Each structure stands twice: as C-alpha cells, then as structure tokens.
Amino acid sequence: MNTTRTCCTRHCGNGCALLVTEHDDGSIRITGDPDHPFTRGFLCGKTARFMDRLGAEDRIVEPMIKKNGVFEKTDWNEALDLVAGRINALRNTPERMMNIFYVASYGLLFRASPAFFGRLGATAVSGDYCQDAGYEAQHLDFGIAHQPMLQELAWSKRVVNWGRNLDAQAMLAGREVNAQRGRGLKVLTITPGDPGYTAFSDDLVVLRPGTDRFLALAVVKILMERGADMALARDRVFNWMEYEATVGLQRLDALLAACGVSRAQADLVADYYQDGPTASFIGRGLQRYTFGGENVRHIDALACCADWLAEKGGGVYYCQGDLGHIRYEWHNRPDPAPRQLPLHRL
C-alpha cells in the first residue's frame, strides 16, 4: 500500500488537500487530508468518486473523428495529424485561429492551450464565462481581487451572504461559517430564491435576480439616513463626494421596487451592517447578469460605507486570488493578440 499527499486541481475554489492511497490489489482510494490545517479531512462526494469516473465503462479514452456525421474511433497519430494539418494551413494567417479556453482543471498545465495558441499568434478572447466581471469590479474598487482568510470569521459578529451557496459551491466556507455560528455569529443570506441556504442562515431575504446593486445602494442610503459615520469611505475613497451625491439623488422606494425587497427587509440588511464587524460574501451568480460588475461594485461600496472593510472580521469575500505560490508567467503571449473577440458574444 502506498499513500501520496496531493491536492485537488478540479474546477473548484476549495483546493482541498488529499491523500491518495493505492492498495496492493491496484484499487485507489481518495480521502481528505486530516492533518491539513484548512481541509481537515474534508472531501466532497464528486472527488470521493473520482476513480469511479476514471474507470467508467462509457468514458471516452480514445480520440474520435467525425466522418459522414458519425464519430468513429481512431488512433492518436491520425487525430494529431488532422489537428496539426488544420493549424499549419493557417500559420501564415494565425488571426484566423481562435482558442476558446475554459477551466476543467487548475493543475500546473491548465493554461497550456492559451500559451500554445498565443505563441502561434492566434486571435484571443476577452471576458469569461463566469467571474471576470466580478474580478474587474474588485480590481477597480480595491486594486486587487483578494479575499481575507476564512479563519478571520472568528472576529466577525455578522455575515451578509449575497448568494454564495455554502452547501453546493463553497463547502469549506460553509463549514467555517457554521462553526462560527456556534459561538454566536449571525448570518443573513440574500438570494434570488435558489435552494441550499437555510442551513447556513439566521435570516433570509429573497430579491429579484440580478438586482443586487439596487438593494446595496438602498442600504447605503438607509445608513446615511441613520447618520452612520462612514469615516473609512470619507477618508480613503476616491470621488467620495460624487458617490455621496449620487446616493442622495436616489429614491429609496424606487430602489426597493427595482429589487423586489420591502423596506423592513432593507432595514434588516442595514442592521446587519451596523452591528459588526460584518463580513460580506459575494456569490458566483450575481456578476453573470447585465451590469453584473455593478452588482459587485455596489456591494463593495456598501461594505466600505459600513466602515468594517479594514477591520478583522469585516472585508469582502469574493475570490481568493493568486496567493503567489506558483508563477504563471510562462503562459503569457510573447506579442499582443492580433484581435480579441468578446467571449460572451459567442
């Protein structure tokens, strides 16, 4: 029996530490690493059954080429010759090639294809299927997209969760949240109505999908009406006077009508932000809508106006960002792309 310590590279933000044990009969078992300070033995159901997937009888393990409308098995030489032939035919006009790339694995080579096509000089895509609007929003607001460590929730008194599914998408964050609820942390969840939140919430507000910015702006307006200090925003934010004037021009009833939330519910959100330190969780859905980046930016602004942004137990949790453990410059293009096409328009 041989056990290897490794980590999960699947398309997931948790990055769990794993133990992979190969038994004498050739079978392989994957478990969470109990000695890792963050994973602490956790393993999701998908990764626990990963070897079943690799060994599944219907898994495609050979290249297939479509001939006369039907996929037929072939060998790797024929498949690679076909691909290389198509690429070589465009070597003199590489802008006619476009690499559409997304993430199945976060392993060391997960950017191999954009590195390859970038060196060929192919057309690139801009944007992303999922988080880029939120990334860009956070870079505009804070200069970096980098959330606090989950352990800092030990200093939080309140959490306002804007649609982060702690059951299906962020299980380790959910475990930490519920552990802190055991010592008195209160959690308010704001969701468009999808399931999976009640087990992680003390209070729940349902709003119209994609309208989070209107609720965040309404809560800022309520905080201003209450005379909240907002010293952090006033002293450290660019264009604070313009933002404050913009909030003043908004009608509270119109904002609440836009997101489908009552005044009592908006007051509850404001109560959470005043009784802190309050951490803000941002989910993986509200940035996908038209003006999705604005949804993120207005939540960022609310967290700043509530004055908890620079406090332990405050902050905004959207994405972990690059911790600097691995250098990824190897995948950068040597020259700018001849053109870029917006991915969302495909």
Number of helices: 12
Q: What percentage of residues falls in helices of 4 or more residues?
A: 25-40%
In this structure, how is the largest beta sheet organized?
Answer: 5 strands, parallel
Portion of residues in beta strands equals 15-25%
What is the averaged pLDDT score? 92
Order of helices and strands: EEEHHEEHHEHEHEEHHHHHEHEE
Give me the side-by-side strand order of the main sheet.
9-8-7-10-11
Q: Which blocks of ≥5 consecutive residues have pLDDT under 50?
A: none
Q: State the end-to-end CA separation.
A: 49 Å
Number of DSSP strand runs: 12
Indicate the overall shape. globular
Cα radius of gyration in angstroms? 24 Å
- Briefly note the structural class of the backbone: alpha/beta
Summarize the structure.
The protein has 12 helices and 12 strands. It has helices spanning 45-48, 50-54, 76-88, 112-120, 132-142, 171-181, 212-225, 231-236, 240-249, 252-259, 263-274, 292-305, and strands at residues 2-7, 17-22, 28-32, 64-67, 70-73, 124-126, 158-162, 186-191, 203-206, 278-282, 316-317, 340-342.
Task: Explain what the structure shows.
The protein is α/β, with parallel strands linked by helices and 346 residues long. It has twelve helices and twelve strands. The strands form four sheets. The protein has a five-stranded parallel β-sheet, with helices on one face. A three-stranded antiparallel β-sheet has the order 1-2-3, with no helix packed on it. It has a two-stranded antiparallel sheet with strand order 4-5. Helix 7 runs parallel beside helix 12 (292-305). 29% of the residues are buried.
